[in-house]
Amino acid sequence: MGNQSIKTATTTTFRIIHTKMPKTHTKCRGTNLSYPRNDKILRFPVPDNKVSWDTPYTGYKPVDYTADSVLSGPVWADIDVRKPRTPQPRWNTVDGKIDRQSHTGHYVIDEFGVPRNPVGRTGVRGRGCLGRWGPNHAADPIVTRWKRNEKFEVMKNTSNNKPVLQFVAIQRRDTGEWAIPGGMVDPGEQISVTLKREFGEEALNTLESSKDEKEDITRKLNELFCRGEEIYRGYVDDPRNTDNSWMETVAFNFNDDDGTSVGKFNLHAGDDAVGVKWTDINSEIKLYASHKNFIHETAKRLGADW
Ligand code: RP5
């Protein structure tokens, strides 16, 4: 599919660019790798050449694991559809308000009657700590500004003369890793709304702001977020992924080009974030899941140093 523009109900205009499926995943498989938030659960080893479902892997015995927090039946989770006489979700479509479509295309339903990870084996069956069977949809706001000195001049990398870009990174409470302040798309929610909500909650702590502060933040966010550039749409190499549940995202870049809007905000970590900062972008950064790829793509698009 080529590039196209969409208009949402909030008249936000985004340029959409479609991206390809990753060839493999690395953060959700490994030897001696325990599952996030439960070090008693060890992933069954999946070497590079056994990731693909097309390659036979005799003796592949992934552990079947779904966290108690998911099995207890919160609103954000599906029921265990593998139990007999359980109503089946409508896979590969919008099922009521739940979007069960994958950005990667049509996914396969496996021999246990549940979706099969489109990238390949992970060494864990079940849902792990993800709520949905199949794709779990998220949205990632990549908010950027140019790095400036005291005179407000854009700073450059002296070795290649390219301007240095910064983005708002949050530190995740669960793994301690730095990440884009993304979050899950609520059922029926527009991505443009998720992007603003998650950025406000995690990077500006709007959940604890006063009414006046919230109004000011909302106005500035509306101005910046009304023009976004789609960077990525698809599978996320997330450490929580399993053979039957995986993360997908739509990542948008919002660049405060002249540094006069969000570039001047006081950042405050909130919700699931324990830290927040403007972070210099370069090839050395280490980030959660496949977020480094999205940041690299953003730097390329804006002609920034990498
Ligand atoms: C990642 O998990 C997505 O890219 C997004 O940043 C994040 C959403 O999950 P939570 O932060 O809500 O746990 O895969």
UniProtKB/TrEMBL annotation:
<dbReference type="InterPro" id="IPR000086">
    <property type="entry name" value="NUDIX_hydrolase_dom"/>
</dbReference>
<feature type="domain" description="Nudix hydrolase">
    <location>
        <begin position="135"/>
        <end position="301"/>
    </location>
</feature>
<protein>
    <recommendedName>
        <fullName>Nudix hydrolase domain-containing protein</fullName>
    </recommendedName>
</protein>
<dbReference type="InterPro" id="IPR015797">
    <property type="entry name" value="NUDIX_hydrolase-like_dom_sf"/>
</dbReference>
<dbReference type="Pfam" id="PF00293">
    <property type="entry name" value="NUDIX"/>
</dbReference>
<dbReference type="Pfam" id="PF25969">
    <property type="entry name" value="NUDT9_N"/>
</dbReference>
<dbReference type="InterPro" id="IPR039989">
    <property type="entry name" value="NUDT9"/>
</dbReference>
<dbReference type="GO" id="GO:0047631">
    <property type="term" value="F:ADP-ribose diphosphatase activity"/>
</dbReference>
